[in-house]
Design a protein that fits this description.
The chain is an alpha+beta fold. The chain contains two helices and ten strands. Strands 1, 2, 3, 4, 5, 6, 7, 8, 9 and 10 form a ten-stranded antiparallel beta sheet that branches.
């Protein structure tokens, strides 16, 4: 004997746990609605028996129960149906309590956000002049273009990435054609986060000029479109405007 074959049925279940709980609660609500219809039907049965049921034309129907025996019969039928409804209510109450227990017991706690906020800047070219040490205590001002982009403290993972490339306008001698800066892993920290502004501290290295980590503070203002770069060791405090920087509060 073979199993029955029902066409056009896909048995794959693609709902998550929250949707399961919502569907269970909805099923309880629909069963309660069905019971409400049954109780209302019994009430109308009594009205019809007593002659108090109002018809659509706003007139009262003639009583269907004309003898005491008829009234007792209707009363027994209504009582039997209300007992059924009462038993069903107890079953639905037990089902509701089970769903609540299931929701409370297995609802995972909200994971803590990795960061207070995340600051991001797509790769952007910025005209800049860097003061670079070339040895013997001598520094030179080198004009060029800084290509800067970063994602600091991702809301989901807490990971940070930074791309910083400096292309001197006239490379030569001790000045290479490309200078790169790298983010020191684990050095990013959000010091302050307030709506569309954030202060982030981090460390970078840029060998051979700055092989040791440099402390950097970035103050991002999404509304103003500015990023202030502060490097105390180099005496740098520069605000760059017209940047597509974004500040996202995590956990909101």
């Amino acid at each position: 004997m073979g199993y029955p074959n029902i066409p056009d049925i896909t048995p794959d279940i693609t709902i998550d746990r929250v949707e399961v709980i919502n569907l269970l609660l909805a099923s309880i609500g629909l069963e309660e609605l069905s019971l409400a219809h049954l109780v209302n039907a019994e009430a109308e049965k009594l009205q019809a028996a007593l002659g108090t049921l109002i018809l659509p034309d706003d007139t009262a129907a003639a009583p269907l129960a004309t003898t005491l025996e008829d009234l007792l019969t209707v009363n027994r039928d209504v009582t039997r149906m209300l007992k059924f409804a009462m038993h069903k209510e107890f079953i639905l109450l037990a089902k509701l309590e089970d769903v609540i227990d299931f929701a409370e017991e297995f609802t995972p706690p909200t994971p803590p956000v990795a960061c207070a906020c995340s600051v991001a800047l797509p790769d952007t070219a910025i005209a800049a002049t860097l003061e670079l040490p070339i040895g013997g205590g001598v520094t030179v001002d080198v004009p060029g273009t800084l290509v800067l982009g970063f994602t600091l403290c991702d809301c989901d993972t807490g990971a940070s990435t930074l791309a910083a490339l400096f292309l001197p306008t006239t490379p030569g001698g001790p000045i290479p054609a490309l200078i790169t800066a790298s983010l020191v892993p684990g050095s990013v920290a959000v010091a302050n986060c307030d709506g569309t502004t954030a202060t982030v501290t981090l460390q970078i290295t840029a060998p051979p000029f700055f092989p040791a980590p440099l402390e950097v503070t970035l103050i991002a203002n999404e509304t103003a479109g500015t990023v202030t770069i502060i490097i105390p060791e180099l005496g740098v405090e520069e605000t760059v405007a017209n940047l597509p920087v974004t500040v996202t509060e995590c956990g909101t």
